[in-house]
Amino acid sequence: MLSEKNEIARSIREVGHKIKAVVSSGDRQADMDGFSKICYFRISKPLWIHKFFYHVKMLYVALFDNYDVALFSVHSSHLIPFLKISFFFRSRKPLLILDIRTIPVDLVNDLRSKFELLRYNASIKIADLFCDGLTCITPMLGSTLEPQLKRLKKRIGYFQTGVNLRLFDPSKSFSLRASLGLKSKFIVFYHGVISPNRGLQNVIRAIDICRKSMPNILFMVVGTGNGESELKNITKELNIEKNVLFTGAVPFEKIPSHITTADLGIIPLPAIDWWNVSSPIKLKEYLAMQLPVIATDIPAHRLVVEKTGGATLIKNNDPQNIAQAILAFNKNRKTTYPAKTREELHDIISFHSQAIRFIEYVSSLNN
Fold first, then answer.
1. Fold for domain 170-348?
2. pLDDT in tens, 265-285
């Protein structure tokens, strides 16, 4: 998430605007060079006390810094009423915008999940009462918000995920096949968070189906998460340890080389509310690297692929469907490369293009 926020900040700077942030940090400060200014706040134990003072710091900066637009996340939306009250005592009144990157995901029946859902719904009500606008990540998410809004129903903007085309450039990346000992492998690739609700279990089952006719197939999983142990158990139960590689976490700047190593990207998200309204950044990263993709036919994927080409959308993430798509791709690869050039992709999926649309939206709020 920090890398995405940094890219958003960098893209806004590139179109001629300064952007500041208050960022929490541990012992090591994250590299956030995309911002014009960073106010770091070190958080340590006891965690709840330090988080309280971190939010006090955010409010202090919001009250006394000079700026034209204040952009809040769901996690900081409770500060909006305090800032709005301060407008009675100041002549300069910046625009207040709530930005929603995602609905609550990976929810279970526990107190933490209930709190996340409560905070999300409360942030929408707060925004409708006090904000000048509301931005979200996709039109699909905007459609779910409209029934909950009165004042802001017609003031929703969109700031989708994008891709840094300078970093995700196949001409500047190199394959890791030799160093990883994978020269003869057909590599199906996934990177990102590993959680139980992303359909990755079915990819492993599909690999088991494919290996009968493709013994050299390998599923490379880059990332970590609370679903990793389940995936490893399925791999072991199917006795396909030689066909699945878990790399663990990889630095963001090395992801392009890992993508270059692959033959085929896969995004098996199921058709549930969490993912239907999302904007998977990995899809755009694969397209930027000219890696052919198999993805489930959900609104979030369709929104991108209808404009870019470059992906095969399958009905659902059933193992048989995934396996059939992989086998079909392996049989006829020449027709599956992205339909759009990188120059054309710049205007569709780059962070730069998204920043321009965001600035146009902010300007419209003043009209």
1. Rossmann fold (3.40.50)
2. 999 999 999 899 999 899 999
